Amino acid sequence: MSFAAMMLVALVIDASLGWPAWLFARIGHPVTWIGALIARLDAGLNREGESPARRRARGHMAVALVLLAVLLPALALQLLLPEGPLGWLLGGVLAWPLLALRSMHDHVAAVARPLVAGETEAARAAVAMIVGRDPAQLDPPGIARAGLESLAENTSDGIVAPLFWGLIAGLPGIAAYKAVNTLDSMIGHRTPRHEDFGRAAARLDDLVNLPASRLTGGLFALVSARPRAAFAVMLRDAPGHRSPNAGWPEGAMAGALGVRLSGPRVYATRVAEEPWINPGAPDPAPRDLARGLALYARAMLCMAGALALLALPAFLAAG
Prior knowledge:
By secondary structure, this protein is mostly helical. It is built from 12 helices and 4 strands, in the order H-H-H-H-H-H-H-H-H-H-H-E-E-E-E-H.
């Protein structure tokens, strides 16, 4: 079984279709199914009043149960796939929902269009769909910065990382990665409720995203018009980011576009005093969000080409 061919099929389908609204209305989405399981485990296992050690142990149990619930069906489906092109096609269809190439572009483009047109309120409403910070506190440069940061980080989390693990292990790899990422997004927070219960999920997510975050940053730098600057900013500033992974694609994006990212941001109940990435550069202008989307498109085309090269021996053997 060529996992590269399978992932290429999934990427092409997602780039062409995304996840159609009519399909979501009828069956939901695999991430929402995983999320429903996580929510039930959080409600049943994460009990306030228990000791931190007990809550950490239950958090480990929740992670194990979610991974088992995802891995076993994914492995069974993969074992049932036929060899050759039909298997790649069927496997790609099954992997397709676990990528977010089309939706990532569409969400950021929905911010860029009103921002470039000077419609700040509409841009705030659109950016609130992809970031957690308070949109009312964002001026146009802040909206552009939030959009670029989301684009950079989620290219790694939503596209490169699932493809990376899919290349390694096929359907079980991409499905397990998506389960870990969903666990982190739901319970991997430093809040009183999830500080202990979500610790295993957060640490596992940091681990599985480590290779893809570096690959994503390198990809952005390679396809940019300023590769030396992009690599230099990434290598210098990524280690100082609050996240062990997000700083790499954000650093490459900032260096490639010649803007500064990260920095202080306002959430609903707190101000996060984060260090700047590429601090000597100006804030991004609205047009820089469109430039970021163009960089993203080039990076995705490059990645599709790399997948095609990896799948070439299987294509030749099948032909």
